[in-house]
Amino acid sequence: MTIDRSELADFLRRSRERVSPREAGLAAGSRRRTPGLRREEVAQLAGMSTDYYTRLEQARGPQPSPQILAALARALRLSDDGRDHLHLLAGHRPPAVRSRDDQVGASLLHLLGQLPGTAAQVLGDLGDVLAQNDLARSLLGGVCTVSEHGRNVVWRWFADPAAREAYPADEHAHYSRVHVADLRAAVGRRAGDPAATRLVERLRGASEEFAALWELHEVAVRRHSRMRVLHPVIGPVDLDCQVLLAPEGNQRLVLLTPPPGTDAADRLALLAAGEERLVG
Question: Residue 173: enclosing H or E segment and its boundaries?
Answer without folding.
Answer: helix 172-189
